[in-house]
Amino acid sequence: MKRSLVLVLSLLLNVALLAAGGWYLSERGARPIAEDLGIVEERRPAYDVYASERFTELEGEPTVLIGDSQIERGPWSEVLDTPVAVRGQGGMLIAEVTATVPDTVPGDAARVIVWAGSNDALHERTPAEAGEDMAELLAAVEVAAPGAEIVVLSLPPLEWVDVTDTNTALETATEGAGATWVDVTPALDGLLTDDGVHLTGQGYEAVAEALRTP
């Protein structure tokens, strides 16, 4: 009798645990649980939503900088000697920058500086794919701010991947859009931080000088 009671209680406990597990799975979702357990990599955030949350209703400045962490990390107002609107977000691919344009580029912007593509190169997107995405990004900027001067910066000399072909594709897309291409790659040699991706302070000074040079 006692043994039967233990078996019944054990069965009820297992049923309760299964029910609780099913409820947790339905409430949380399989993907987040797998991410928590390290079974799959974390999903990339929805950058267009982030842009809406971070940048909507800010007053902005005539010069707007959009792109990835190369933009987000920069001391731009200091090195350019003028207030600018920094609208970069780390980790973004070129296509993800495009999704943020309605929230980052105001219609009255006078100059839009674009720096994106490092993550595309690091994530092994082909130069052709990066070029196509850049063309779409520049088209979106043109729609958002029809009168703005659009400037595109070349990728820095990343230590982990050769950016030569990607830069060529980005330059072609830039010229096709009638935007201005500024090649900063040679000037940034030796001016990356220890991670081999991001710029030192001197690196940002070099970029600012390139932007000031006609």
TrEMBL record:
Annotated InterPro entries: SGNH_hydro (IPR013830), SGNH_hydro_sf (IPR036514)
Domain annotation SGNH hydrolase-type esterase: ranges: 80-206
Pfam (any one): Lipase_GDSL_2
Protein known as: SGNH hydrolase-type esterase domain-containing protein
The organism of origin for this protein: Brachybacterium conglomeratum
